[in-house]
Amino acid sequence: MREMTNEPKIVNGANGGSHVSDGPLTTTAIREASPDLLLSEIDQRVVKVRPMATPVDQISRMVGARKAKSMVVEYYSVDSKAVVARSKNIVQSDDNDIDGMTTYLLKTDNDSIFSATETILAPTVSGQDANGNDTGKLLMYVLDKTDAGLKVVMVNASGNTAATINSLNAGKRLVRMGRAAAELDVQTPQFEALPKKASNYCQIFKAQIEQSTYAKLSAKEVGWGFSDQEEVAIMDMRMGMEKNFLFGSKARITDPRKMDEVLFTQGIWEQAGSEEELDVANLTMEDLVRVMRTAFTGDASGSNKKVFIGGSALIEAINNLEYTRVVGASQTTTRWGIDFQEIRSKFGTLYVVHAEIFDQCGLEDCGMIIDPEYMTKYVHVPFKVEHLDLKKSGVRNVDALVVTEASCLVLRHPKAHVRIVPA
Prior knowledge:
- This protein is an alpha+beta fold.
- It has helices at residues 27-33, 39-46, 55-62, 162-168, 213-218, 228-247, 268-271, 285-296, 312-319, 356-360, and strands spanning 9-12, 18-21, 65-67, 72-77, 84-92, 103-108, 118-128, 134-146, 149-154, 173-179, 196-201, 203-212, 251-255, 260-264, 274-278, 305-310, 328-335, 338-344, 349-354, 367-370, 375-388, 398-411, 418-422.
- The chain is elongated.
């Protein structure tokens, strides 16, 4: 008689899929046929272990991760074309006047952001007509872009422009405005945004849990299948990951004892593109509004809802503020499994939570504003649990588990994230 077996077989489908035959559908079979299928479920279980203690790792798991094919992750940071420059000098051009309008060569501290057919506003300079009447904020039109500067005409300054020229030579703020095309124009100067390429290293995080056979028999199973000892070990691993994800330094070395390469991931603290100073001892509502303005406007504009994590001294100072109807602390909101206190303003909303990692690192008066929409987690080795058979190898009479993950965090829009440092 043919021996029956319950070992499932993985067979290919007609359209590239996989099927299980001659056996039950087990997790082992699922991992073999579709290795990524169970990853989201594993993350959903991991995040149930003290989510408030590791907000960065918690959010990164809840918003989803990207698969990294290598331990070295290369990515592109989102950027936008600058909109503001400063005038350096302006002189009358040698070219003939165009339709009765004088042409000028305008030199700025960043000519590269301007192109032909664009308009430029000088918000602190006024234009005048031929009768000397004020025509509002000076508006210029770019005719051409040369090595000597921008060839422009003053749209609303047709009168005596000596005062206007003197003012522009004093270094005035210039704002890049929209394009102004002629009726028969079908083309416009090209504009390509080239994002900045960056890289980070995936760090291998590990935790090993050992439990004797007798202890396992008496251990109480809890929650998602881990014993109390395993839960504590996972928590300690996540706390370590949180510190590296925040304050780690990007590096690669060769361990002289193991003669093997070790990679260290860069934390998002150093990746943030904006920074604000706060005097925790004398924090005022005006200071908080200034920080929110930095976090939600200009180059930092991203989502209108961001996460504010901070040390105990900073969070205490924020709690002691007298809120108004313009800026106020509203109800507690639960997102990504974390309880946040909302602070609303006309600029946007901050989800505030204390991060004990700052306290452990001696940064009680520091914090960080994070835009979850522009924070991405890359995973080279997904969170997995491996069983070590130490009994058969004659090492110890224990059940051993090794938990492993190789991952890193990157900020795709650095300006949208703000470091908060002491004044």
